[in-house]
Design a protein that fits this description.
The protein has 801 residues and is an all-beta fold. The chain has three helices and 65 strands.
Length: 801
C-alpha cells in the first residue's frame, strides 16, 4: 500500500553565504594555595611510598601517534621509545634512577638529572620537542645526563628581575636537595609524577636567599586533551617572609629541526613552533598559568633566559598578537622560550602554585583544548554570594596542525545551587559573531544543557558558548563544581569527549531566604503546585509565589523592597492576585507585583494568581519573579536582586519548526578557472521540530535555482550556474544521524534529509546533526562570478496519513 503524506509546515528560510575569490587571492597572580599537590590536584591518587626510579605515560593522539611525558630518559640507543612493560601497553617504566639525585651544573647552561621530558612517539620512533644531547652512547649515565640538558625548567629569581638570568645562578634544580619521586594515577587513568624536595639558596636574608619546600608535578591534562601540565608548588619553610619571582625556560627542538620561528597562539594564551611535520604548543590555559611569555634565540655558552622580555618585564602577551603572528620576527632561529609569573610574597607556612601546559602534535591531527570559567556580574570583591549572577564561558580551541576539528556536542550538567537562565545562552564563533541558542536546548527537568554547535574549527580557531546562572540558596556556604563535556573529532580520529570544570566557592549568608515559584494546571484539574506542568494553548494555570526569611537567618528583609513580576510571552493574567503578607493579612490585588513590608526571620509572603496560555506560547514557558531594592536589618545593608526558582509550563505545541539554521557557511574558495565541489565549514543555528501528534513524519529541504526569489545572488545580481546534476547537495541519511549518508541534490520540490520517517510524539526533536558542518555541498562552475551569495531554502515537514 502506498504511503500518503500531508504537508504540515513549509517555507522556512535560511541564508547562504559564499565568498568566491579568484586568481591572485589567498585562502583564507599567583595567589595563596595549598602547596601539597595531593590536595590541590585532588583527582590524583598517589602511592604512599616514594619510587626509586621514574616512569612514563603515552597518550594516544590518533593512529600510531602518542604523546609521552616523564622525568628523565625515554628513548633507547636506536632512537625508539622504550617498550611497554605493563599489560595495557600505556604506562611504562623507563628505569631512570637519576631522577632523585642532586642535579649537576655544567658551565652556565647545562643541568643534568630530574629534567622534564615531553615528546611524541610516532610509530615506535622518539620525536623530541626539547633539545636533547646524544642518545646513542652505550654508557647509560651518558644518556641520562643528556635529557633536556640545556633547559633549566623552573627558575627562582629576585622580585626585581636581574638583567641576566642564567641556569647556573637561578635554576630551581641547581639548589634542590632531598629529592623524592612519587607516582600516582588521575581520574582518567593517566600517570602523574611529582618530585618533592627542599630548595635552599644562600644564607642570611639577601634578596637571592631562599628556604622553600618545592614540589614539581608532571601530569596529563584532566580535561582529556592531549597536553601535559607542568606545575610547581612552593611553601615558605622559614620563619621570615620571602619574596621571589618564578620563571620557566626551555630550549626547544622539534625532531631534527632546531631552527624555526616562534609564533603566538593569540589572545595572550602562549606560543607555538612548527616545522612542517610537527607542532609544539605552550599555553597558560589552566589555573595559576603564567602571566608573561617570550620567545628568543638560544645562545650557547651563557644563555640569558630574561633577554626576551622588555625592560618593564612584559613579553609577547602585551603585543596583542593574533594567532600565527611571529614573536621572533622573520627568519629562523635556534628556538627557546621563557615563561614568567608575577612576583610572589609568602609569609611563614604560606604556599603558592604555578603552571603551564605543553602539547605536541603532528600534521594533520587536531589538538582541542577546552576550558570553562565564570565572572561574577553582581559583585567584584572576589566573593560569590547567594543570588549573585554568574556568567559562564565554555571555550574550545583547536591548537592542532593542518587539522580540522568538528565540534559535535556540548553537554553541561548544571549542579544544584545554580539556576541557569535559558534565554541567555549564546554561541560566539571564531569570526566573533554571536548567535542566540534556543532555550529548549536546556532541559530544566534534568538541569542539562545540550547543544550541537555544528562547527568545524581549523588550526587556531575557537568557539565559546556562554550563559548566565544565578546562585541559589542551596549553594550557601558550599563549593559547587560545574563540569562541561565537549565532544568532537578530526579527519583522523573518532568522536572523543573532553571535559572542563570550574569550582564556585559560595559564602555562607547571614541573610538567608527561601524564594520559590510553582505552578499547576487548573484546566486539567491539578491540585498540587509543582516545579513544572504540561498544558496546551487556551488552558488556565495557577502560580504560587513564596518568599520567606529562614528562621536561622540573623537578618531581616527591611520595608521598602518590591516584588516584580513580568509575565513572559504566551501568558496573560486571569483575574486578581491573592496576596498574604508577613503579618497574615490577606487581600486581592489587580497587580501581581507588590511592595513588601518587613519580613523577619521565620516570616513569609505568598502570592497566588492565575494566567491563561495564549496562542503566542511556544515550547517551554519559563517564569521567575524578582525582589528588588531590598535592604537588611540590622545594618541597613543593600542586597542584590533576588530571583525565585523557575516555574515551567510545557506547552504542547502543534506540529512546527521551532528553529531553523540562520546560515550555511561555505567559507571562501579560489576557483582558478576550474570547477570545484566545496563542503560547508559550519552551520549556524539549529534545526528543531516539534511534532506532538503520534503519526510518523519526514523532513525535507528544497532549493530552486531557477526561481528569482530564492536563487543565490551576489550584490551585483549575478547568480550561480549549475548543470543537470544540481548546484546544492545534502548528505542524506537512511536511519540515523550517524549513518555515512549519500549526497543528494536539493530539488525544487524538496529532498528528504533522511529516507526513513521520524517517529511521532516529539515535543522537541533536534535534527541539527543532519544539517551541520560537512553535511552540505555545492558544485561550482569555473565561469562563476566572484562575490558573496545569499539564497533561500524551503523546509517542509510531511506527516504520514
Amino acid at each position: 500500500m502506498q504511503k500518503g503524506y500531508k504537508i504540515i509546515k513549509r517555507i522556512l528560510i535560511i541564508a547562504f553565504f559564499m565568498l568566491l575569490t579568484f586568481l591572485g587571492s589567498t585562502l583564507t597572580t599567583v595567589k595563596a594555595a595549598d602547596a601539597d599537590a595531593a590536595n590541590v590536584d585532588s583527582d590524583i591518587t598517589w602511592n604512599s611510598s616514594p619510587s626509586s626510579y621514574s616512569s612514563m605515560q603515552l597518550i594516544n593522539i590518533g593512529g600510531q601517534l602518542d604523546l609521552g611525558y616523564t622525568f628523565g630518559l625515554a628513548q633507547d640507543t636506536n632512537g625508539n621509545v622504550f617498550t611497554p612493560n605493563s599489560a595495557d601497553g600505556m604506562v611504562k617504566t623507563n628505569n631512570d634512577d637519576t631522577v632523585t639525585k642532586d642535579s649537576v651544573i655544567a658551565g652556565a647552561n647545562n643541568i643534568y638529572n630530574t629534567k622534564m621530558n615531553v615528546f611524541l612517539r610516532n610509530n615506535q620512533s622518539y620525536v623530541g620537542a626539547i633539545f636533547q644531547g646524544t642518545h646513542t652512547s652505550s654508557v647509560l649515565s651518558d644518556r641520562t645526563q643528556q635529557v633536556s640538558m640545556t633547559s633549566p625548567d623552573f627558575l627562582i629569581v629576585p622580585t626585581t628581575m636581574p638583567s641576566t638570568v642564567t641556569a647556573k645562578d637561578y635554576s630551581l634544580l641547581s639548589n634542590m636537595t632531598n629529592k623524592k619521586i612519587y607516582t600516582g594515577t588521575d581520574k582518567n587513568g593517566h600517570l602523574a609524577l611529582k618530585i618533592v624536595g627542599d630548595f635552599v639558596r644562600g644564607t642570611g636574608t639577601g634578596n637571592n636567599t631562599f628556604d622553600l619546600k618545592a614540589e614539581i608535578l608532571l601530569r596529563a591534562s584532566p580535561t582529556n586533551s592531549a597536553d601535559i601540565q607542568r606545575k610547581l608548588y612552593l611553601t615558605n619553610n622559614s620563619d621570615r617572609t620571602q619574596s621571589f619571582q618564578v620563571m620557566f625556560g626551555e630550549d626547544t627542538k622539534l625532531s631534527n629541526n632546531d631552527r624555526v620561528s616562534i609564533k603566538d597562539l593569540g589572545t595572550s594564551n602562549g606560543l607555538y613552533i612548527e616545522d612542517g611535520s610537527y607542532k609544539l604548543m605552550v599555553t597558560n590555559q589552566l589555573p595559576y598559568g603564567f602571566d608573561q611569555y617570550a620567545g628568543q634565540e638560544f645562545t650557547s655558552g651563557s644563555m640569558n633566559w630574561a633577554k626576551g622580555f622588555a625592560k618593564d618585564g612584559t613579553g609577547a602577551e602585551s603585543k596583542g598578537y593574533a594567532y600565527g603572528a611571529s614573536i621572533t620576527g622573520t627568519g629562523l632561529i635556534d628556538s627557546s622560550y621563557t615563561l614568567k609569573w608575577n612576583p610572589t610574597t609568602l609569609s611563614k607556612g604560606e604556599s603558592s602554585q604555578y603552571g603551564s601546559t605543553m602539547g605536541v602534535t603532528a600534521n594533520p591531527y587536531a589538538l582541542p583544548v577546552v576550558s570553562k570559567n565564570y565572572t561574577n556580574e553582581t559583585t567584584s570583591d572576589g566573593k560569590n554570594n547567594v543570588n549573585d549572577k554568574l556568567k559562564f564561558n565554555l571555550k574550545v580551541k583547536n591548537n592542532g596542525y593542518g587539522s580540522q576539528w568538528t565540534y559535535k556536542t556540548l553537554k553541561d550538567k548544571i549542579p544544584d545551587g545554580l539556576q541557569l537562565d535559558p534565554n541567555s545562552i549564546t554561541l560566539t564563533n571564531n569570526d566573533g559573531v554571536t548567535t542566540t541558542i534556543p532555550a529548549d536546548d536546556y532541559d530544566a527537568t534534568t538541569k542539562t544543557l545540550t547543544i550541537p554547535p555544528a562547527l568545524v574549527l581549523s588550526d587556531g580557531q575557537e568557539a565559546t558558548i556562554s550563559y548566565e546562572a544565578t546562585i541559589t540558596r542551596e549553594a550557601g556556604g558550599k563549593t559547587i563544581t560545574n563540569t562541561a563535556d565537549f565532544t568532537g573529532h578530526d579527519t583522523k580520529t573518532d568522536d572523543k569527549t573532553y571535559n572542563a570544570s570550574v569550582d564556585i566557592e559560595v559564602e555562607k549568608p547571614s541573610y538567608n531566604f527561601d524564594f520559590t515559584k510553582e505552578v499547576k494546571n487548573v484546566t486539567n484539574g491539578e491540585t498540587d503546585f509543582k516545579d513544572s506542568t504540561d498544558a496546551k494553548i487556551g488552558d488556565t494555570v495557577e502560580y504560587h509565589i513564596y518568599f520567606g526569611v529562614t528562621s536561622d537567618s540573623t537578618q531581616s528583609l527591611a520595608t521598602g523592597s518590591k516584588l516584580v513580576e513580568n509575565l513572559p510571552t504566551g501568558l496573560e493574567q486571569d483575574g486578581k492576585a491573592t496576596v498574604k503578607g508577613p503579618d497574615g493579612y490577606v487581600y486581592e490585588s489587580p497587580n501581581i507585583g507588590t511592595g513588601i513590608a518587613e519580613v523577619k526571620p521565620g516570616e513569609n509572603l505568598t502570592i497566588d494568581f492565575k494566567a491563561k496560555i495564549t496562542g503566542a506560547a511556544i515550547g517551554q514557558i519559563h517564569n521567575t519573579v524578582t525582589i528588588t531594592g531590598g535592604v537588611t536589618t540590622p545594618g541597613n545593608e543593600t542586597i542584590p536582586t533576588m530571583t525565585s526558582t523557575d516555574a515551567i509550563v510545557n506547552v504542547q505545541k502543534s506540529n512546527a519548526f521551532t528553529s531553523v539554521p540562520s546560515l550555511i557557511d561555505f567559507g571562501s574558495v579560489n576557483l582558478a578557472g576550474s570547477s570545484k565541489t566545496i563542503t560547508n565549514v559550519a552551520t549556524k543555528g539549529e534545526l528543531v521540530v516539534t511534532h506532538p501528534d503520534s503519526n510518523n513524519f519526514n523532513v525535507s529541504v528544497a532549493y530552486d535555482n531557477d526561481n528569482e526569489e530564492t536563487q543565490m545572488k551576489n550584490a551585483n545580481g549575478d547568480t550561480l550556474p549549475s548543470d543537470s546534476s544540481g548546484l546544492l547537495f545534502i548528505k542524506q541519511r537512511d536511519n540515523s544521524e550517524n549513518d555515512l549518508g549519500t549526497w543528494q541534490p536539493l530539488l525544487p520540490t524538496g529532498t528528504l534529509i533522511r529516507t526513513s520517517d521520524f517517529s511521532g510524539s516529539q515535543q522537541s526533536l533536534n535534527l541539527t546533526n543532519y544539517v551541520g558542518a560537512n553535511d552540505w555541498q555545492m558544485q561550482l562552475s569555473p565561469n562563476s562570478t566572484a562575490g558573496t551569495y545569499n539564497g533561500t531554502l524551503t523546509w517542509s515537514m510531511n506527516e504520514s496519513i
